What we know:
mainly alpha
Amino acid sequence: MVHLSGEEKGVVTGLWGKVNVEDVGGEALGRLLVVYPWTQRFFDSFGDLSSASAVMGNAKVKAHGKKVLDSFSQGIQNLDNLKGTFAKLSELHCDKLHVDPENFRLLGNVLVCVLARNFGKDFTPQVQAAYQKVVAGVATALAHKYH
Length: 147
């Protein structure tokens, strides 16, 4: 559960309504794979990830990034029940995919950077603070099965 004030919830949901999940998702996942190259080991089937331009132009990276943000959108709609919202994804990433839960935190921070880049002056420190709470809550929910 994320503890957000009513104002923070409004800020988060208001901005999220303007997010192009396809573009932002692809950019966020692509940046994660470039900035933290060890995360690429989970994406062997994605083809060429040999350079930043290859990663950022990779159709499978973009498609999976959209899928990730579609799931994140479910979290935005269920901020009071992130653990329940992400229970199945937590189990999948823990039991079948064996993803290091630290990667969820890294992706959340990259997402905040991408949102800041995309929304510029509208992504105020107040908006960032609210989103940091959300991505931390999502990362915790996704890591729940690991505990």
